[in-house]
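Hi X.,

You mentioned you wanted examples for the new student's onboarding notes, showing what a folding record looks like when two proteins sit in one file. Here is a clean example. The first protein comes first, with its sequence line followed by its structure tokens.
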Amino acid sequence: MRVLVQRVSSASVSVDGQVVGAIRPQGQGLLAFVGVTHSDDVDKARRLAEKLWNLRILADERSAADVNAPVLVVSQFTLYADTAKGRRPSWNAAAPGVAAEPLVAAFADALRGLGARVETGVFGANMHVELINDGPVTVFLEL
């Protein structure tokens, strides 16, 4: 499982022109793009959620847990693109939707269990993501 997290001052995700998830924190929040591979499981989703929640990338070296920052979770199978050969990425390392969808949901649920206010995109949909990256701060997490 991979998470590309961005510190944001606002973020939203839309499907077919309708906003399906949005965060507009008073201070900062996190946008988490989540990719799943074949060997991932619920335990890894929980551990990554805890790592994200406690990661000190907000102002004054604080974490989302410290300031109760909201998190927008968006599934992103392209985090497992293999571009080593040719010009067309391979998606073989990305788990199929039937395996990935429950793990992205488990990641979001684990964040909620830690006390986070979580918004999400729609798994498998063509989503439009809008964000204002604060910093910019972008961090890649993987276990």
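Then the second protein repeats the pattern, sequence line and then tokens:
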Amino acid sequence: MRTQTVTLRILRFKPDRIETPHYEDFKVRREPRMTVLDGLEQIRLNQDETLMYRHCCHHSSCGTCACTINGNPALACASRIADLQSDVITVSPLANHTCLGDLAVDMTSFFREMDPHWTNIRPCEGMTSNRIPEDVDQVVRLENCIECGCCVATCPVSATEGEFRGPAVLAAINNEIRNRPTSKQSLLRIANDARGVFKCQRHLVCSRVCPTRVYPARHIADLQRALDALSSQDT
């Protein structure tokens, strides 16, 4: 039988304040359908207002609450306490990112790789005509990638090769080729540089942890095939 409380074991670190990272335990009351983010909110509001983490939408649309939960990169807002089946849940910042404090990491380098001119919307599939207002020509939606950084956090190449563009960026490049075929050649040149797709070692873990099923490894394979085809044409 589950206890009425659950322990969140959180890695604490703050530059110039907590120099040596260490785990700190917090007990929070267990509630139905409770998520890890709900637990973090309880701690910040009732026990330690200095706890640092990011959050925004609370329904797995923004990606900001991504962290490492029981060893796996995941969205805190989508990770239910009951599903984790443990009375002690370990929470730490995303790997392969610089920690700013506690669970908050620096995403600057991640976003720097994303060209702001790349498209981030696409036609909304599955919309029947009777659900579309008469004065609307087309319904669009955001792309699946919510730029949470989970794929980078779990990528062994990103952990050892500092110059690797990473799975999220390469998936975005392949997606942009699909949306803007006229830019294919210039985008393939980016994908084929020294930091590009051929650094990938096909561990496939990026696809396994992606919370929105982008499957970055599949996009990387598409880019590799396209580049191999170009190479064959040149020989």
